[in-house]
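Hi! If you just cloned this repository, the fastest way to understand the data is to look at a raw example. We've pasted two of them here, unedited. The first protein comes first, obviously.
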Amino acid sequence: MAHSIIVGGSNGIGRFLAEWHAARGDDVVITSRDAGRAAAAAADIGPNVTGIAVDLADPHGIATAVEPIGAVDSLVVTVMEQGANTLAGFDIDLAVRSVTTKLVGYPELVRALLPRMSTGVSVVLFGGLAKDRHYPGSTMVTTFNGGVSALVTTLANELAPRRVDALHPGVVGDSPRWRDGPHHSHADRAPGHHGGDCRRHRLPPVEHRRQRPEPLQRQGPARLVSRRHGGTPDVLRYPSPTGRSVFPAGPASSVRGGNA
């Protein structure tokens, strides 16, 4: 039996992954910052799933929090701590918490679990496409997701031959982050919504397309080769973050539906 750890597995992309691993018979541990939420999600997913509380924004407590975890064959970290944070209304506490979560919490989590990792382990750290596609208020999000790309290159070297990768999704229309967001400008054309039909949209003439990257929140489906924003299953199929091959190791893959 494989042992899979999904950090942030109580909802969103992490929940989808936990269900996938549980369905194939893995021994699964999911985490949430709240112990009750983790336990409830675990009970809902299946009898081979355990829920524990882990807060990556509290790096000093991570090692103690993950003590109940045994062997690790697959580790996927989908935790995000983000929000619009403009310079005009800069929230220092939010900035510190969000950066700490990914750039301190991620490596400390890997360090704490390293003695329990098999040599064929797959470690996947989730970032976000805002590392390349900025939008107003994304200064910190763009910064720490860019840092995740750099982080996996060093981790891949230190953990070799274990596999370490980063996955940077764009708009994931059926995830709570985008589905329930009050300013989701693409909600009617994203998976999980039924208000629009992306097939009606046509690409603008080449000479009218912007040459600079479009901010994430302004990328309409018509600008994507796929003509739609992705859903959770799309993200997890490219490439499957659940494989146990040591190849590839160290790359940062972006999942966005293609640029038109």
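Ok, and the second one:
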Amino acid sequence: MTVKDAAKFCGVHPNTIRNWLNAGMFKATRFTSRTIRIDRGELERFKKQENKMTTTTKLANRFISFDHQNPRVWDLFVRFTHEAIRANHSTFSAQSIIERIRWKTNVETRDNKFKINNDFAAFYARKYHKTFPQHDGFFRTRHSVADRSFIPNKVEYPKNRAVNAIVALYCVGTATAIGMFAFGV
């Protein structure tokens, strides 16, 4: 089937089919630079797989992909969150941190190579709570798609005494860090 036929079959624009092909989401045979044929069985398999994915899974996958491709966003999220903790905020808004990242990258440094989806704030808040359990609850969270599909278990974040002590030193001061390290927290 042609790209145009595949687009009709899937209910999308032909460029979407081309993007999916370029991303390797399914296989096709290329005869010339402009002549592409897609196996109907391959397309049916792909469509069935896509239909199984819920909106929640798709959003979680988009977050994981964005987070992987843009590690600087996570670094800034952690940095600005620690600044809020040092400013004695007991709770804070993850969306405010995202807005500050936007300000930093778009206005101060003019490094706007990425766009942060507002839906990712919930994922970043949960990632922060998982990475820094001593600050669990710093971001007030409500039930969200991020709860049901946060990050796969295969993604691990450091959770050892030295990291916790360094984070405590950075966030709350020397005495607390020494106490945490001494008591094995």
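That's it. A detail worth noticing about the second one: The beta strands are 29-30, 36-37.
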